[in-house]
Design a protein that fits this description.
With 511 residues, this protein is α+β, with helices and mostly antiparallel strands. The protein has 13 helices and 21 strands. The strands form six sheets. It has a six-stranded mixed beta sheet with strand order 9-8-7-11-14-10, with helices on one face.
Amino acid sequence: MAEKLWIEVLNMSLTGSVAIGAVLVFRLLLRRAPRIFSYALWAAVLFRLLCPVSFASPLSLLGVLQNDPASQGKMTYIPTDIGYQMDPQIHLPIPAAEEAVNAVLPDGNPSGSVNPLQINLYVCARIWILGLLGMVLYSLLSWVRFGKVLKQAVRERDNLYRLPGEGTPFVYGILAPKIYMPRVCKEEEEAYLLLHEQVHIRRGDHLFRLLAYAALCLHWFNPLVWLAFALSGRDMEMSCDEAVIRRMGNEVKKEYSRSLLSLASGKGPGRGIPAAFVEGDTRSRVKHVLSYRKPSGYLAGAVAAVCVILAGFLLANPAGVQEKENPNVFYGVVALGMPLGEEEETGPMVVRIPGLGDMDIPRADQVVPYIETDFDGLEIGDLVRITFPKDEEIVIMETYPAQFSGKAELIEVMGRGMFQIEPADGGAYAFAVPLGLAPEAKEGALLEIYHHDPEIDGKKTELLAAVPVQSVNAEEYQIWVELSAEELKTFLAEYGFGIRCQAGQKAGAGS
């Protein structure tokens, strides 16, 4: 469970990193524009870091980076079962990085009790949990310590409180945020400093900052998230400064800048508390205040439109057009062929493919099991997937057994030793379903076969067939049913990826 959660967070962190990179580029391009625009874009980054699902659109930054379409709204760069794969592969947003990482991933270990990658995932997941707990514990302790300091505050009016001594004003609280001002504050400065904090509350910055810190705790291992946390805080403060200047006029710039410098020298008690808006990076803020010019309505509207488009670009998962199925992929069951002569009791092994019949098992670059298992070659009853190169024309040569015209890239064993196909009347097939899929099945009962697994292909589970059980062979661990060629093709192609069986009432019985 911890490993799956860790992989989920890693996938979110990778998506968030792409969004952070895009916002960093945007900030550079519009460094002279009002900071409210870049601050708004950090909301898209925050969404990506906290929410694993999003909508799909042809206009997607992740789509530009040639990522595969999302499954169930999630970007999955690292599969949840990677620790069990014989040849683990990940799909990163940057192809060059993907190749480098895949090159160093350890191969599976069929003879061992666990794969090397499982051990790595176990260790990394525990380290991540310890780091997360450390961040949360630090926050709780700081909250308790800071609560003692705030007891010194005296309520002046509404949500305005005074703290003794000098320091920087800040907002603190979640549902009912309060403004804390230093008692030592010049009267002429207080109006715009108070306005600054009121802008924070009106915009909901206290909630945004809390969520940003939650994302930082969750992704503490990602240096880009730390950078985003710092820069989003800076943009937040500068955009608040801009709001004050717009409201009170350019003539307050110098006085406002002086107040920032004087208050920055105080030791505000809110420093280091994630939920408190302590004004930091005074030098950059002063420079920004002095150079700020209110943009024209047309320019502001144009930049705002660009930001909306870019935000959608960052939030969208690639819709993409799902790649068409490779026509050079065949599914079948390994069987014994017919005797080639009277002196031979049995024929060679063949692969029995619905619609094609008995085929000679082709030569292949690789013959491997799909999942970890003891494997010493093909055997009778194996469900296999045979893959030929996509751009190669495959011809079926009419012999017995029939033959493929080319060499296969890969033969994968998708199910081991429990399957059997026999031709039946009308182009149908008698088919042996593994008893483990419906151990309660009885002869004459109705077997319902469902396909699709939303967790894997994102499609709704559908009924593939509802057929009577012809017989149950407990010794061979088989349930015999009759399926059409299309039903059988679907079963073979999706076995292990979303096939589910359920034995119901007797076939023909009333409900």
